[in-house]
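call fold(seq) -> tokens
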Amino acid sequence: AFLGRPLPRVRHRWAGVYAQCTDTSRVVHRQQVRDGVWLITGPGGRGMTCSPAIAETTADQLGW
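ret:
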């Protein structure tokens, strides 16, 4: 129970994989995969927290 109310039954679960950058000196992996297309991945479960900083750093690196 939570706050005196019964919890609903779990109907679906999710199990996934968080991409983790293997270079310990960086938070994410950035790679230009084609002209004008960049791959940015690997924050390993810190995306919601770090996304503003990742976006700002990426924009700076791209000269935006």
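Strands lie at 29-34, 37-41.
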